[in-house]
Amino acid sequence: MDKETGRIIAGIGGNYDVLCESGKVLRLKARGVFRNRKITPLLGDRVTISGDGFFDAVLERKNTSIRPAAANIDQMVVVFAVHKSEPHFKLLDRFLIECDLRKIPVLMIFTKADLLSEGEREKLVRILDAYEAAGYPYELISNQDESAREDAKNRILPKLSGKLTIFAGPSGVGKSSLISFLTDTTQEVGELSEKISRGKNTTRHARLLTFQGADGVMGLIGDTPGFSSFYMQKLDPEELAMAYPEFRPYLGSCRYSNCSHLKEEGCAVRDAVRQGQILPLRYRNFSALYQDSLNSI
Q1: Could you tell me the CA-to-CA distances from 2 to 8, 18, 50 in Å, in that order?
Q2: Backbone angles phi, psi at 129, to 5 degrees
Q3: Of 135-149, 152-166, 218-232, 259-273, which gets the smallest average pLDDT?
Q4: Which of 296, 293, 274 is nearest to 283 (CA)?
Q5: Is the dihedral of CA 45, 50, 56, 60 positive or negative?
Q6: Beta strands in 67-206 (DSSP E)
Q7: pTM here?
Q8: Are strands 218-223 and 207-212 parallel, antiparallel or unpaired?
Q9: Could you point out which of 57, 70, 138, 177 has its C-alpha 20 to 30 Å from the C-alpha of 121?
Q10: CA gap 190, 188 in Å, rounded
């Protein structure tokens, strides 16, 4: 008889909460063979259940992420605030590059948009429209305007239904309160420090939450601890350039085959920046990440 399968939705102190196909949640342990084989069960893993308080095997993963450590992710939602804790676009690019390398789609959500002046909002939208044109859709969320919040909720929920979505981003940007709003559940929420405008980390353990989407289809959401930095794989210049989707049409058209896209004459990428085809902010981030890569060697 086939063993029952389930998905790991939480892991705390060597115990794992596993959501079974039947809908029940079991608290299980991993067999010692996992440690012997150096296999670490991850949030989102599909496992087979033996019925004696253990799970026996981790089924093949379609993808993994490092921060947060999770598997079988359908999409990532990266959350940034646009007031006080201003978006750190270099940090955002690190996140997007890592997701691109791991073939994980991304939706960007920016909170506290109602606190921007009209000029600040227009400037931000111009930047985010360039990100969207590169393949990274976004949503702006207001904190006070209930009508605008509901409209945003109606746009976002269908994108989450039937999927495993991991929410990530810096501390204090409102990930947990956003999840509470979207799923009509209660999350532990901390207040942004007025003194230093840095978030206090309120999510201590990554976990998956079940919710009913707008169409009645169940989805899974992961709420993860916030971060102030983000690990990115070491890449050579061409790999890094390939991780910027808007660069790709110009790669291979530079005068020099080993072009670093930083200072060479006849660089098609730099020409595209000058002609307004590539957002200067994105190019500056690429240059900074390239230098970071050199400094880490």
Answers
A1: 19, 17, 10
A2: -60, -35
A3: 218-232
A4: 274
A5: negative
A6: 70-71, 75-81, 106-111, 138-140, 164-168
A7: 0.82
A8: antiparallel
A9: 177
A10: 7
